[in-house]
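Thread: Modeling a multi-component assembly for a lab meeting

Hi all, long-time lurker, first post. My supervisor asked me to bring a structural picture of a complex we are working on to next week's group meeting, and I have zero experience with this. I have the sequence lines for every component (613 residues in total). Could someone generate the structure of the whole assembly? Inputs are pasted exactly as I received them:
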Amino acid sequence: MRLRPPDASGPDALRRGLIGLPLAVAVPAAMAQFRVEISGVGATQVPIAIARFREEDKAPQPVGAIIRADLERSGLFRNLDTAGVALDEGSRPGMSDWRGRGVDALVAGSVARLADGRHDVRYRLWDVVKGSDLGGQGYAVPAADLRLAAHQIADAVYEKLTGEKGVFSTRIAYVTKAAGRHTLWVTDADGENGQTALASPEPIISPAWSPDGRELAYVSFESRKAVVYVQDVGSGRRRTVASFRGSNSAPAWSPDGRQLALTLSRDGGSQLYLMNRSGEDVRRLTNSGGAIDTEAAWSPDGKQIYFVSDRGGSPQVYRMPAAGGSPERVTFNGSYNISPALSPDGRSMAFITRDGGAFRLQVMDLASGTVRSVSDTKDDESPSFAPNSRLIIYATRDGGRDVLMTTTLDGRIKARLVSTQADVREPVWGPYGR
Amino acid sequence: MKTKINRSTPALALLAALVLAACSSPVKLDEPAVESRTATPVGGAGAGGASSGTSQSQVASVDLSKDATAGLAKVVYFDFDSYVVKDEYRPIIDGYSKALGADRKKRVVIEGHTDERGGREYNLALGQKRAEAVARSLTLLGVQDGQVESVSYGKERPAATGSDEAAWAKNRRAELRDR
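Re: Modeling a multi-component assembly
Sure thing. I ran the full set together rather than chain by chain. Output:
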């Protein structure tokens, strides 16, 4: 791990303090479906300078700005001003100059148009503290993949400086509702490059990425009841996996992608069942009489299923062995805890708690059971972890609209992906490797 | 898996129309045929009940007044956090049980709904409980299980917008629809 706490004293700290104010990154409105607004100050952030990529103004995408926003949103980096700096991947920047500016890491690069119409994107990363060149890479891509190339550079910088995998090249899915139309979207993790997976006059809820990122399960009301479909993201081919009597909902993929846990009312009430990914071999998992069991969520090792049950009188999170057995209760604070999401590293569970009339995102450390509130909004829903377990995406309400937010697990750095058109809800973070 | 992403010219309005070369076409579902939410005459013996061997001038008569559920309200409302079918809705239950008892081929779907407060999936399950409570009231009066399907919309299809008790009360409901 490569993080260094910022210097807490002296003129450098003052300069950093000024520059560390909330940074609004505006992507040109014509291209932006979302505006990304980032707020908060993290405990330990690497001060990084990302110089404008040579000729990036001529490219269809603002490569440097995309990288800057990605790193800022991660909560582990703070972008320092590089106005007027002219560098590229072939430069030999003066390390002591940059140290003097309070910079720990420096990125520079270029975007060049190739004769065949593609773009050649190159970067280099310097460890300013050690004064060493950490190397770089070039990507020759069509214009349509320029944003992806920028995200891959952000991932590489993030990994080289933190030792962890970045999530900037991943995708998210979510649902919008506007004027009676419901749309299931797939976008980059920064909310850009939106593509419609499903458009419907009836509601769509509970999207769930398959572990390999190729399919989305979801609930659609197109036949006037809740039915679970699985759709191949690349081809759009759909198949029905659960259309039993009554309602079929809350699909959750096992980590090996072979099974789905879901909620069925075919035998009365709402209970948990397992099935294989084609919808066959249905087995009942819970049997809680008149209670509601729903919102299954698998532990990353595939051995436990967390779920919501009101068998104790009000909805709480429980966990039981995926192979069957007695559930044990997991949440104990308050009278209403729902929507569990497990971090891929197995250490944390995000969920929603009702506190008075407010619905708030909380994170539980599973080893100790301690719970921390990570948002100060009142209508949080639908948390989902990034594949590196470092960020949570969730939906909430702000100014009368539904919005999507990402937050670090300590709640300090939040980014708002603002929809300018529709109410957005039900975000789910896709896996590595799109 | 690297996907090719084609972008139309930048314009918010075109985003919904993005079509990807070599990749998915968005799946677009047709608007449903306009449905009347008022009672549709399922009809007693009238519709299509022409007997064989009759003249070509035979006109089958459809008598709307015979439809037992035509005049009935179709909505049962619930108190907060409750799925108890209150006494004031007895007439609806009784009316439906008579109609369903008289015609064993007649079927009904009961759609349960909640107000907007709370999680989507939990509310889907609460709506399901409301629908099933109404269904139970019917089967207790002799309606056959196969004539009734209980489904839920949870909070996805509010009848009234607004975040006050007046709107919430209108959304906590079960709707009965003829199939």
